[in-house]
Automatic annotation (TrEMBL):
Gene3D superfamilies linked to this entry: 2.160.20.20, Autotransporter beta-domain
Protein name from the UniProt record: Autotransporter domain-containing protein
SUPFAM superfamilies reported in the protein's UniProt record: Autotransporter (SSF103515), Pectin lyase-like (SSF51126)
Record-linked InterPro entries: AC_1 (IPR043990), Autotransporte_beta (IPR005546), Autotransporte_beta_dom_sf (IPR036709), Autotransporter_pectin_lyase_C (IPR012332), Bact_Autotransporter_VF (IPR050909), OM_autotransptr_brl_dom (IPR006315), Pectin_lyase_fold/virulence (IPR011050)
Record GO cellular component, one term: outer membrane
Residue intervals of the Autotransporter domain: 850-1126
């Protein structure tokens, strides 16, 4: 160590106090050194500084060592200087190999001049290590300087905030392979300096790496962070970065001339007043270049983010989470240039991009790298909104260009310009408004199949808003290869001479969801397409100008979308129509929307018409299908409204229907018809032959199988003769039309039948029961008389009586009519009974006293099964029923001591299920009834003790019922019924005594009033259902015979024989046509049973009953009763 000072000589381990001024001398070629203050050394190269700063002004301290230097500033050490030199500077002299280590405690070094607060310079080959402050230090430091002139590494850890008044807040410089590592825990500020060229952090390297991390904000007059040279550069700032307004200012964050990869990550905002917000410029062959800004980028007089990589195969990645605001013609908002490099470019902005000069995005990959631009917000650009190019300088590269914008684009020139030697994909979520140029321009220069163009504009696209002359095109797609292209416009396309212009060697689809307008009279121009061109019309499409197909032979007009749309067929193929759709050989219907076609197509007949999905409506339209038949596929429907025509043939694998609002539409096919298990659905007023109906007219031949369904359009059913004509066939009628489902109206079922005689080609709906056709008797030709034989005189013809008019044809009745009738009969008869059904034998005899007593509680249950025909003999009904009744004797007495009377209350629950089957059609219907009843009864016996003589029994009850009728293929019908049933019964008991048995014979007569009626009901198909008659009175005349043992009480056998007469047969009226039970007017009935005691107070009885009526009316029932006496 060499030291010179005016009056004091330094010694090892001696305390030195600099009282006056430090003198800088040049000794042995060493830099100027001044030694002063409270810094002491205990051994060579080791210094410790302590003591507080002078309250006025201290002199600077410079310490120089050869070999190495370890300079420790204790926490109580401070300086207060005002000089252009460093306040404290440690130097390792040339030729040394040791490190320079400077450690500062929590003390404060104040530099009021333009010099550095703390500096370290290693002029040897060693490293520079500086630790300023400690973790959690809240103090402030002046500017810091570290220099490794011999290529050593620099490590700079700063735990204090740094505020510079002179030059850069933090400077680090090394040579050769030296690396730089800077960590700043607090804010770094070089804004209030005396130098216009001061930066927050400046790092200079040759071939070493640079790593800068700052947890606070970084700002500087001439730039926030700037790195020049070096290899790999990593900058990580957790706060904001700000660059000042001086004329020497550079980017907020700048990296220049490094040879490796670059990573810039700023979590806060980047603000630059006179240059780019972030600028990276890498040497030839450098690695990847990456920029991420977590906040906004604002450059009031520069570009937002600008990255240039020269000759690199690595990618450029730019991501800004916030907004970008810029003002620079060259760099604009986002600028990325792969200069003579093959690397990719990816640029993403989470907010808006606004430029007062220049483009929103400029992305250029010189040698075919992929280019991606994505922005979630809006673009407001002075010139182009997005300029993205993957150049084909290397013809073997096929880089793709992908542009996606979530918001609106407002551009002074082009909205989007995208070019690649691969594919181009443009996705736009908002509106595009272009100034004096195209709204969207996309070009793929690939000559093979690697390219292709996709444009999806979800908003409006408008061009030429700032020009007196309209641009040539609003959307331009130029695909120079054979790959496919797709253009979708969700909004309106306006402003250009041509709305959409497409060139391609491959297939092109233009999917229009809004208005496409061309001021020259051409809305869509695909004449430059040599592949198949498809015009897809969807949702809210409209054309202002013609749509022209390409030069291929397989061009398609596609009707698509999920919103109902319409097309005037008169515009198709008409070159003289201002909005004509010209040159498309094929018509294709897809998606779920209903398309209504109107007008008459007279030109441009289609080679093929394919209906794949959804519904296509011919509304008084004429469709010209001059090629293959119209193909109605399985998921498609062709509907006819009014009178429409297909000039061509039809293959039906799907559904053909007619206007459901009213019958009477007609479809005429001027060709052949083939059914491939498709469906024809007609709407018909189901009445007589002259009923209004939809109709299919086939001028040619029919073939294949077609299902036919018919919806009743308000008919009430009527008699038909020939039938209601549905299908008229002019040629060979080889097709089979098969009825699908029920065709029902009123009381009748209709059937689809082929006509007879001269109408055998046609198909009709008939409500008649078809009669078998008797074989014709061959006509015997007259014999030829023998020659010469005189002719027998002709006998005058016998005058015959006038022929009897043909009988009215029998109609096909629906089985549901029988179900309604069965339900009504069940509701009226479920709870009907005679006296013995309720009480068993007449009275109860006390086993001890022999006294006849009243019973208190009784219960009976009945299960039965029956069947009957209706009056037409077409319908056969089977039914089952179950009844449970419970009663109690509540009152009783005697008028004269010999007679007896009793009265009580009763309640019941019953169900009935029936199934009616049509012998004509095979259809069935099920009826169900379930209900409750409550009522009372009273009985009088003339001679109760002897159980002989006369009796009178009466009862009355009211019932409520739920009814259901469900026919094959029809909706279930639900309705209610309710009403009163009442009975009066009388008889006389004769007793015949024998030796061991007594015999009883009891003639009986009973009248039952059956007044349960059903509510008037209208079926889902419109049929009105009513009861066919008012009430019924059933008369029963018969006798009961029983036998009782004199020896002991036990079971008593009995037999009953009755004749039943019903004043009305239960029936229902369906639209005025009655369907009623047959054979129930007069019924014979026989019962066999037993009654007797099974315990002291319990008696049971049971019987089997069989009813037989006319026309195979049958009913069988089993009854069991129980009573408990008290």
């Amino acid at each position: 160590m060499n030291i010179l000072r005016p009056s004091v000589v330094s010694k090892p381990a001696a305390n030195l106090k600099l009282i006056a001024v430090a003198i800088a001398l040049a000794v042995s070629g060493v830099s100027q050194v001044a030694v002063a203050g409270s810094c002491t050394t205990s051994s060579a190269g080791s210094w410790t500084c302590s003591g507080a700063a002078d309250p006025t002004t201290d002199s600077f301290i410079h310490i120089s060592e050869s070999g190495s230097l370890d300079l420790m500033m204790e926490d109580d050490f401070g300086l207060n200087v005002d000089t252009p030199e460093a306040a404290i500077l440690g130097v390792v002299t040339p030729g040394s190999t040791g490190d320079l280590v400077i450690t500062q405690g929590t003390g404060t070094i104040t530099q009021n001049g333009t010099g550095t607060a703390v500096g370290g310079r290693n002029e040897g080959t060693g490293n520079v290590i500086m630790n300023i402050g400690a973790q959690g230090d809240t103090g402030t430091s002046g500017s810091l300087y570290a220099d490794a002139q011999g290529g050593g590494d620099i490590t700079l850890n700063v735990y204090k905030s740094v505020s510079s008044k002179g030059y850069n807040a933090i400077s680090a410089s090394t040579t050769a392979n030296g690396n730089i590592n800077i960590y700043a825990a607090e804010d770094i500020d070089a804004m209030n300096t005396n130098s216009n060229s001061s930066r927050g952090i400046l790092a200079t390297a040759d071939e070493g790496n640079v790593d800068i991390k700052a947890d606070g904000n970084v700002s500087g007059q001439a730039g926030g962070v700037y790195v020049t040279g070096g290899k790999d550069v990593n900058i990580d700032i957790n706060g904001d970065v700000t660059s000042g307004v001086t004329s020497l200012a550079t980017a907020g964050v700048g990296v220049a001339n490094n040879t490796g990869s670059t990573s810039v990550n700023v979590q806060g905002d980047v603000t630059s007043h006179t240059d780019d917000g972030v600028m990276l410029y890498a040497h030839s062959g450098a690695g990847s270049q990456s920029v991420h800004v977590g906040g906004d980028v604002t450059a009031t007089d520069g570009g937002g983010v600008a990255v240039t990589s020269t000759g690199s195969s690595e990618a450029i990645n730019i991501a800004v989470d916030g907004n970008v605001t810029a003002n620079d013609f060259t760099h604009g908002g986002i600028y990325a240039f792969q200069d003579n490099g093959s690397g990719d470019i990816h640029a993403t902005v989470g907010g808006d991009v606004t430029t007062t000069d220049g483009r929103g995005f400029t992305l250029y990959a010189d040698r075919g790298g992929d280019v991606t631009a994505h922005i979630d917000g809006d673009i407001n650009a002075k010139t182009d909104g997005v300029y993205a190019v993957s150049n084909n300088k290397d013809s073997s590269a096929h880089g793709d260009v992908n542009v996606s914008v979530g918001g609106d684009i407002n551009a002074g020139r082009h909205g989007i310009r995208a070019t690649s030697n691969g594919s181009v994909n443009v996705q736009l979520g908002g509106n595009v408004t272009a100034g004096d140029a195209l709204g969207i321009s996309a070009t793929s220069t690939d000559q093979g199949s690697e390219g292709g163009i996709t444009i999806e504009a979800m908003g409006d696209v408008t061009s030429g808003t700032s020009s007196n002359a309209n641009p040539e095109w609003t959307i331009y797609a130029d695909n120079q290869g054979t790959a496919d292209s797709y253009i979708r416009t969700q909004g309106d396309v306006t402003g250009g001479d041509v709305g959409i212009k497409a060139n391609s060697g491959g297939d092109v689809v233009v999917d229009a969801h809004g208005l496409i307008s061309g001021d020259s009279g051409v809305a869509v121009d695909m004449t430059g397409v040599s592949g198949a061109s498809t015009l897809m019309l969807s949702d809210n499409w409209a054309l202002s100008g013609q749509a022209q197909a390409g030069n291929g032979t397989n061009d398609v007009l596609q009707l698509a979308g999920n919103t109902d749309s319409a097309l005037d067929l008169s515009t198709v193929g008409d070159t003289g129509n201002a909005n004509g759709i010209i040159g498309f050989e094929n018509l294709l219907k897809t998606d779920s929307a209903t398309w209504t076609l109107s007008g008459e197509q007279t030109q441009g007949g289609f080679d093929s018409v394919t209906l794949q999905n959804g519904t296509t409506v011919l509304n008084n339209a004429t469709l010209l299908a001059t090629g293959s038949p119209v193909d109605i596929q399985q998921a498609a429907t062709l509907q006819t409204n009014g009178s429409s025509t297909i000039n061509g043939s039809v293959n039906n694998s799907g559904t053909m229907s007619f206007d459901s609002t009213q019958p009477g539409s007609t479809l005429t096919i001027n060709g052949n018809y083939t059914g491939n298990n498709g469906l024809l659905h007609f709407n018909t007023v189901l009445d007589d032959d002259n009923s209004q109906t939809d109709k299919l007219v086939v001028q040619g031949d029919t073939a294949g199988t077609t299902n036919v369904a018919v919806t009743n359009a308000g008919g009430t059913g009527a008699s038909t003769l020939n039938g209601i004509e549905l299908i008229d066939v002019g040629g060979q009628s080889n097709g089979e039309f098969v009825q699908q489902g029920r065709i029902a109206a009123g009381a009748y079922d209709y059937s689809l039948v082929r006509g007879q005689g001269g109408n055998a080609n046609n198909w009709y709906l008939s409500s008649q029961v078809a009669d078998p056709i008797a074989p014709l008797t061959p006509t015997v030709p007259p014999s030829t008389p023998e020659p010469g034989t005189p002719l027998t005189p002709t006998v005058p013809p016998v005058i015959t009586e006038p022929s009897t008019p043909p009988a009215q044809p029998e109609m096909i009745l629906r089985p549901e009519g029988a179900s309604y009738s069965a339900n009504l009969a069940a509701a009226n008869t479920l709870f009907a009974m005679d006296m013995h059904d309720r009480i068993g034998s007449s009275t109860y005899v006390d086993p001890t006293t022999g006294e006849h007593k009243r019973s208190k509680l009784w219960l009976r249950t009945e299960d039965g099964h029956g069947h009957f025909n209706d009056s037409s003999e077409q319908l056969r009904t089977h039914n089952d029923h179950t009844v449970v009744q419970l009663g109690a004797d509540l009152f009783g007495g005697s008028f004269n001591g010999t007679d007896k009377w009793e009265a009580g209350l009763m309640a019941g629950y019953g169900t009935s299920e029936s199934e009616s089957h049509s012998k004509i059609t095979g259809y069935s219907s099920k009826g169900e009834v379930s209900g409750y009843s409550v009522g009372g009864y009273a009985t009088w016996f003339a001679n109760a003790n002897e159980q002989t003589g006369a009796y009178v029994d009466t009862w009355a009850q009211y019932g409520w019922f739920d009814n259901r009728v469900k026919g094959d293929g029809l909706q279930a019908e639900h309705y209610d019924s309710s009403g009163l049933t009442a009975s009066i019964e009388s008889g006389y008991t004769f007793k015949l005594e024998g030796e061991q048995h007594d015999y009883f014979v009891q003639p009986q007569a009973q009248l039952i009033y059956m007044g349960v009626t059903a509510d008037n009901h209208t079926e889902h198909n419109g049929t009105r259902v009513r009861d066919a008659q008012d009430k019924n009175v059933q008369t029963r005349l018969g006798a009961r015979a029983s036998m009782r043992s004199k020896i002991k009480q036990g079971l008593e056998p009995f037999v009953e024989v009755n004749w039943l007469h019903n004043s009305n047969e239960f029936g229902s009226s369906l639209d005025g046509v009655t369907v009623s039970q047959d054979g129930a007017r007069n019924i014979g009935e026989m019962s066999l049973g037993l009654s007797g005691k099974v315990g002291k107070n319990v008696e049971v009885w049971g019987k089997m009953t069989q009813q037989i009526g006319e026309d195979d009316y049958r009913d069988s029932a089993a009854t069991v009763g129980l009573k408990v006496n008290f």
